[in-house]
Each structure stands twice: as structure tokens, then as C-alpha cells.
Design goal:
The structure holds two protein chains of two kinds. By secondary structure, chain A is mainly beta. Chain A contains no helices and eleven strands. In chain A, a hairpin with a 6-residue loop joins β5 and β6. Chain B is mainly β. The chains are: A mainly beta, B mainly beta.
């Protein structure tokens, strides 16, 4: 079965603290994973994809096939990082399966 | 403004009614989608069209019927609305399958409330 699990509904941290949003997946094929973000009153948008191995807004995510994980990390959280974060798995034919999302709240 | 736009943004209606949500994209994409986000924020794909042809049809009641008059439009019609249909419906688009990067461009969502 194709599934994306984000175990935390809410993650609350203080500004400057490290952040790790967890994502685990279940997929028999070769996975392609993404993180999407939805800031308050904005559209859901792509944050980063694992194949690009990029750092966007200080966030990075490494695909760990052994642990079937794609956790999103940032060493020092900023207040503007507060948003809803969705991990997504591409399962072919441009179909994206999303996790249930984690709300990140960064307090001053 | 290049974007994916959906109308209406908010829709409140009675059980049993029929309603439509419209979606248009001017990004030149070939593929369009409808996603449903429930009260727990879970995003689930409903349909996908590539160049007006249905390519993904998840387990969705027959009361939901997508229509794509051209590749820039994908409308969602819902018959005999039920309480459980209350959700936010997101339209999205992406490049053609052959060039697919996995990036979807989302509309702002249409919040449907069934009373």
C-alpha cells in the first residue's frame, strides 16, 4: 500500500531552536518524495523535492530508504516558518499521495 | 497573474442539493487535479485529467463528476450533497506527464459546507 505518515499533528518550538518534521512512507516502488508548505492565507506550494537535494529557506530533507523516511529539518527555526507542512510521495502518473500534515508553530 | 483559480471560495448549501466548483489554470499545464481536504487536514486525490482525458479516478462516489471542457479547465460537479461532503476542495495543475517534475500548483481552495 502507498502511504505517507506524519506522526505529529502539531510541532511547537521557540525561535532559534532546531526543527525536525517527521515523515515516513510505505511504497514498493522507487520513491520520489516532496515537502509542500502552506503558509497562513497562502496556497499550498512545493518547498523541496528529494531528487534536487537542495536547501530551501534553510530546510533540508534526506531520503533514507532503509528507514523509509524523509524528515524535514532546519537548524534554527524562524517565526516565518510557522505553517502547515505536508510530506508527499509520488506514485506514478503524476499522482501525489499526501501525509496528514504537521502544523509548525514557531514562537518568539 | 498566472495561477490556478477556483470559484467559489466558499459554498454553503443544504443536503440533497447539486453544486459545482470551477477551476481554471493559465499556466499552460496539461494535467489538472481535484483534491479533497477533510476536517483533519488530510489531502486526498480525487481525480486527475491529462489534456481533457481522465487518468486518475480514485474511489469517489458517483455523485462526484469532473468535467474538463479544455485542458485549462477542470470543473467538479457534485450531486445530492451529503453532510460528509463538507470539506475544502483543491484544484491543482502540473506539467504534462512526460515532463512531470512532481510539482503541483494549487488553487486557493473552495470550502464547501453542507447543512
Amino acid at each position: 500500500a502507498q502511504r505517507v505518515t506524519q506522526p505529529e499533528k502539531l510541532l511547537s518550538v521557540f525561535k532559534g531552536a532546531p526543527v525536525e518534521l517527521k515523515c515516513n512512507y510505505s511504497y514498493s516502488g522507487s520513491p520520489e518524495l516532496f515537502w509542500y508548505v502552506q503558509y497562513s492565507r497562502q496556497r499550498l506550494q512545493l518547498l523541496l523535492r528529494h531528487i534536487s537535494r537542495e536547501s530551501i529557506k534553510g530546510f533540508t530533507a534526506d531520503l533514507n530508504k532503509g528507514e523509509t523516511s524523509f524528515h524535514l529539518k532546519k537548524p534554527f527555526a524562524q517565526e516565518e516558518d510557522s505553517a502547515m507542512y505536508y510530506c508527499a510521495l509520488r506514485t506514478g502518473f503524476q499522482k501525489l499521495v499526501f501525509g496528514t500534515g504537521t502544523r509548525l508553530l514557531v514562537s518568539p | 497573474d498566472t495561477a490556478v483559480s477556483q470559484t467559489p471560495k466558499y459554498l454553503v448549501t443544504q443536503m440533497g442539493n447539486d453544486k459545482s466548483i470551477k477551476c481554471e489554470q493559465n499556466l499552460g499545464h496539461d494535467t489538472m487535479y481535484w483534491y479533497k481536504q477533510d476536517s483533519k487536514k488530510f489531502l486526498k486525490i480525487m481525480f486527475s485529467y491529462n489534456n481533457k482525458e481522465l487518468i486518475i479516478n480514485e474511489t469517489v462516489p458517483n455523485r462526484f463528476s469532473p468535467k474538463s471542457p479544455d485542458k485549462a479547465h477542470l470543473n467538479l460537479h457534485i450531486n445530492s450533497l451529503e453532510l460528509g461532503d463538507s470539506a475544502v476542495y483543491f484544484c491543482a495543475s502540473s506539467q504534462a506527464l512526460a515532463k512531470a517534475t512532481g510539482e503541483l500548483f494549487f488553487g486557493e481552495g473552495s470550502r464547501l459546507t453542507v447543512l
